[in-house]
Amino acid sequence: NQNSFGMIGLGTMGSNLLQNIADHGYSCAGYDNSAEKVNALNALDSENIQGFSNLKEFTDSLKSPKIVMMLVPAGEIVDNVIDELLAVLDKGDIIIDGGNSHYTDTERRYLELEGKGLHFVGMGVSGGEEGARRGPSMMPGGDKEAYEAIKPVLEKIAAQVNGEPTVAFMGNRSAGHFVKMVHNGIEYAIMQLISESYEIMKRGLQMENDQIHEVYKKWNQGRLKSYLLEITTDIFAFKNEGEEGLLLDNIRDEAKAKGTGKWTSQGAMDLHLPTPVIDISVSMRDLSSLKNLRVQASKIYPDLTEMHYGKNVNDYCDQLEEAFYFAMVSAYAQGMHLLYQANIEFKYDLKLDLIAKIWRGGCIIRSEFLEDIYAAFNKDPELQHLLLDKTVAGNLIQSIPSARTIVSDAAIHGISTPAFSAALTYFDNFRSESMPTNLIQAQRDYFGSHTYELKAKEGVFHTKWIMENIKQ
Ligand code: 6PG
């Protein structure tokens, strides 16, 4: 038994991550119940990697305390693998779940395994296939003692930003998977914003694909620099050999989802913490899948407005850049706020600056702006909301007029920009000392005696809203 690291699940992510670990000099063992995948791993012919089709032989090949990471689809499969592992691992061994597990599952598994004397680390891994191979961003949480044992490996295989690895211990129990879930919620929001900017350029400004490519390329050279804009720029240049036009134009417009965005919104609502830009991004993927209904409706409600904006393309795209900045800041701010609240509720012991720090490289939402988020929470670890940071606010204020222009022009021309709009309406309420929700309180009390509170007097009140008291 000489192997230092074991991986269960030899799909692309598992195999790539294992190769990354082996590249750093660790002897690795891989296990999968598919013989084909085990053969593919052995065919790599790496002196540091050994593939196994037998679980016992796999775990027997590991040094103690044994480190076993799972990269298998979230859900029941994780529980099944853990059950099998219980028969072959010993007290003190370490199990890492590197998949996109729901944080409540991780919470349960952590407590169960702790009771059995096994260390459990729920770890978010971001960066896709390429990230796994060359350097992901990793969000481990759970057992601090176990983290110390796996830290040297993780720090070596992570992406590096300014010489520092994009991995750190996130916090207690399910903290790692909660942080990864919020990462994905932000990922959904930014992807939705990019797709809305595409719609404005394509239908509103009637720009050609190569012009849109140039705009994204330019944005990606400035403060919007990010992985998601980088790949979008590539997508606007990609043609399949022998095919006319961009591959993009041949792709169906029904967006799929594996659920992590939805979980973010569900988790946020459970905590009464508003994340509307993320919520609407989840809903728009779902709406996109109602293709049949959309086709029917498009016949009843054809475009009633002239979609062409008739604007100077260059000037307008500069405004669009500002509006994008505005909405992107809002998406990150809402995600960070959710982390702030979850930290209180679940006693995770999260450090928001550390989260921003490890998101700066390796992961899907890595971006220039994460430097500002990091700086804000680093300067003030008690900061409740990113929009209250003076530097962030100073930049955001400049972009407000453009956000209003983009959202209102789109509405007038019948172009849908729900995420931009949600960012703006969230902002307009967030910055407002008073909201019209006193009326909602009055209505609730009227029809259901739900009581209300008064501005000038402590306590909870109920009124009989009978007609005699109402002046007609
Ligand atoms: C990452 C990604 C990844 C996620 C995909 C697909 O950080 O590497 O978030 O974990 O699984 O982005 O997500 P959807 O299928 O839900 O779009």
UniProtKB/TrEMBL annotation:
The keyword NADP applies. Pathway: Carbohydrate degradation; pentose phosphate pathway; D-ribulose 5-phosphate from D-glucose 6-phosphate (oxidative stage): step 3/3. Transmembrane segments: none annotated. It catalyses: 6-phospho-D-gluconate + NADP(+) = D-ribulose 5-phosphate + CO2 + NADPH. Keywords: Gluconate utilization, NADP, Oxidoreductase, Pentose shunt. Its EC number is 1.1.1.44. Pfam families: 6PGD, NAD_binding_2. GO terms for molecular function: NADP binding; phosphogluconate dehydrogenase (decarboxylating) activity. The active site is at K180, E187. It comes from the Bacteria. The keyword DNA damage does not apply. InterPro entries: 6-PGluconate_DH-like_C_sf (IPR008927), 6PGD_dom2 (IPR013328), 6PGDH_C (IPR006114), 6PGDH_Gnd/GntZ (IPR006113), 6PGDH_NADP-bd (IPR006115), NAD(P)-bd_dom_sf (IPR036291), Pgluconate_DH (IPR006183). It is an enzyme of class 1 (oxidoreductase). Homodimer. Belongs to the 6-phosphogluconate dehydrogenase family. This is 6-phosphogluconate dehydrogenase, decarboxylating. It comes from Chryseobacterium soldanellicola.
